[in-house]
Amino acid sequence: MKTYPVVKNQEVEVTITDLSHEGMGIAKVDGYLLFVDNALPGEVVEIKVLKVGPKFGFAKVMHYIEKSAHRNEEINEDLLRTGIAPLSHLDYPSQLVFKQEQVENVMRKVAKMPDVTVLPTIGMDEPFGYRNKAQIPVQRIQGELTTGFYRKHSHTLVPMEDFFIQEKEIDEAIVTVRDILQGFGVKAYNEEAHEGFLRHIVVRRGHYSEEMMIVLVIKKTKFFQADKICAAITKALPKVVSIVQNVNEEKTNVILGPVNRVLFGKPYIEDQLLGKTYRISARSFYQINTVQAEELYNYAINAAGLKETDTVIDAYSGIGTIGLSLADKVHHVYGMEVVEEAVEDARTNAEINGIENATYLAGKAEKVMQQFAREGIQANVVFVDPPRKGLEANFIESTVQMKPEKVVYISCNPATMARDIALFADKGYKVKTIQPVDLFPQTHHVECVSVLVKK
Ligand code: SAH
Ligand code: NI
């Protein structure tokens, strides 16, 4: 059997040297890596080893011998335990530096571009209570419908009513809806037995409009007393404009099932972003931090230096927020998006805002881009805002064929962005700037914009 420098349950004093991508403290014992919850760089701590694996292990802090000057002492440990706010023990200015360094790291290690300047992260004045959406699991604990959040890497519910990073009106709505459902005798879903009724309560709220959508994720199609329940919810929460039953019958970790049934009101909410109005359906993507999304898009649009004659492509367009925010400045916008409902939202959103120079296509960005290249559509500026896995190589290929002057890359995963930037660099595109924007304060998630210019 292979031996390691530490064994399970051993207690040892260590100095934390680094913070992992997920926000865990890193310590080394004779070169062996240990990940430690709630421990910050510079701290000297006595730890107990919880788990020893072939490459690294996990430990927890028993005593703090020396604490970091950057520690935020005011936090609730449930926020770390559940992974809701895994950086909340670090003060906010240090969180912003941490994110800038994450981007610098991938630009050095993944893109092999150590000389690119990464600007200081744009942060929030009030870095909490910002989430405009919540997806809250429901369980039965001691006979009561209970809401909270799962403990990290488990499905053990930690009961919770103050979620810290969600808009407080959403926290209040969850408690109100939960208590109404409890009053009607609604049963919680039980994962192990795969029986019961209510799985999740999902809330979406317009940051400016204050409109709310409540989605009840339910294991069954039949929903007795739905009318009475809706009446009680809208009476208690007058800002609710939409109540949707989502049916999820599967034994799965995926929150939403395939079928949505509107129980009350309209199938969407509306909100404003950079002065335009957007319709947002249950299934469409919408940035969860409205104020910082405005910062992000503003920066990206200004950095693009758009001209009236420009043709712009908005790839991975969602409900159209980026393209419609800049449509007034350019000749034409083409958007593409794979979720049909989001494409319909984007078309409606163009109409609501009186925008006539935006065209939206449903389909995979890779496919649509090839079609554009074949049809000879010539874009001067291409915006991309892909999901975490980044761009497909053939998307980059078709984009380069089109010879745009600029590519504006918006990313929620710096590692795949760095990989893609290196591919663009091989085809003659140079990085002008990289700007991280903090859309997810108190968490380890990093969003950034990079402007690539044709040499
Ligand atoms: N730009 C939008 C959406 C960004 S999120 C906004 O800022 O709100 C990424 C979007 O890409 C999602 O709407 C997702 O549905 C879509 N998507 C994922 N894979 C895709 C693909 N292969 N082709 C086109 N769109 C895709
Ligand atoms: Ni991550």
Q: What is the topology, as strand order, of the major beta sheet?
A: 9-8-7-10-11-12-13
Alpha carbon gap, first and last residue:
56 Å
Query: Can you count the helices?
Result: 10
Rg over C-alpha atoms, rounded to the nearest angstrom: 24 Å
The CATH H-level superfamily of the largest domain is Vaccinia Virus protein VP39
User: What's the CATH topology label of the largest domain?
Assistant: Rossmann fold
CATH architecture of the largest domain: 3-Layer(aba) Sandwich
Proportion of beta-strand residues: 25-35%
Active site: 412 (nucleophile), 412
Domain TRAM: 5-63
Binding site for S-adenosyl-L-methionine: 287, 316, 337, 385
Pfam families: TRAM, tRNA_U5-meth_tr
